[in-house]
Design goal:
By secondary structure, this protein is α/β, with parallel strands linked by helices. The protein contains 8 helices and 10 strands. 31% of the residues lie in helices and 21% in strands. Strand 2, helix 2 and strand 3 form a beta-alpha-beta unit.
């Protein structure tokens, strides 16, 4: 059975207790800095500093050749937060992530992919009605690799590793009104399947409502989750515990239904 460790607190502080080279894979979606309620207490400069320090810590705790799979979206330049513009505009987050992962942490940018969301199910921002700009019906999934002096990698399944655009068939939703940025369960399950082996240790330093932990339970991986917000932490504890019971019932033959796949 998977080993689960949930840590409540600041991820930079909690990661100090994780030994060097003890994590096989990191799957996470950091705060997007979109001026959401939980982001209003930090300046953009401090946000970038936090992300730089996070990447450095991720590189430290990973095994040699281990991966970081990070999901993020581009920034909408609302209120000219990033630069002065005449019209509603954007700022590409990819600029920051390349700097943080490659230039600061010294990792390899192993792959870049696009998560293609289902456009028909998305709300259309009012700004798109008066300006010729698209809906953010996509996000980025980038994979960084810790250097280990080797060019050897494992291909688990070419059918899923060779796709540059993923997510068209990810139909589940997080099902959580309490967390506005929770990703579907298929996203961490895809990352875990592609970049780790059975019983590997997976870290999510921005655990949120615990979707990565649920995916680890589903796929027989060990999980370390860190979350600062007390309400999200309680939700994650409950979701992962409920999922553990469902997995046990399934193994014991008490329930013929599939384990909860709604993230």
């Amino acid at each position: 059975m998977s080993k689960i460790e949930l840590l409540h607190g600041d991820c930079l502080e909690k990661m100090k207790d994780i030994p060097d080279g003890s994590v096989d894979l990191i799957v996470t979606s950091p705060p997007y800095y979109l001026n959401k309620e939980y982001e209003k207490t930090i300046s953009y400069e401090n946000y970038c500093l936090m992300m730089e320090k996070s990447f450095v810590e991720w590189n430290r705790v990973l095994v040699g050749g281990g991966y970081v799979v990070v999901n993020f979206g581009d920034y909408f330049n609302s209120g000219n937060r990033f630069y002065v513009a005449d019209v509603p505009s954007c700022y590409p987050a990819t600029i920051n992530y390349f700097k943080w992962g490659v230039e600061v942490a010294g990792m390899d940018l192993q792959a870049t992919r696009i998560w293609r969301k289902q456009f028909a199910k998305m709300g259309i921002p009012f700004v798109c009605n008066s300006h010729p700009r698209p809906v953010f019906d996509y996000e980025h999934i980038w994979s960084f690799r810790k250097k280990n002096g080797s060019n050897k990698e494992i291909v688990v399944d070419r059918k899923i590793t060779q796709r540059g655009v993923v997510g068209e068939t990810w139909t589940s939703t997080a099902g959580l009104k309490t967390h506005c940025a929770a990703f579907p369960i298929e996203l961490p399950e895809w990352a875990i399947t592609v970049y780790s082996q059975d019983k590997a240790t997976i870290l999510d330093p921005f655990m949120g409502s615990g979707t990565t932990g649920v995916a680890c339970k589903n796929l027989n991986r060990n999980f370390i989750g860190i979350e600062l917000d007390p309400e999200y932490f309680k939700i994650a504890e409950k979701r992962i515990d409920v999922n553990e019971k469902l997995v046990k019932e399934l193994k014991d033959g008490k329930n013929s239904m599939l384990v909860n796949r709604k993230g």
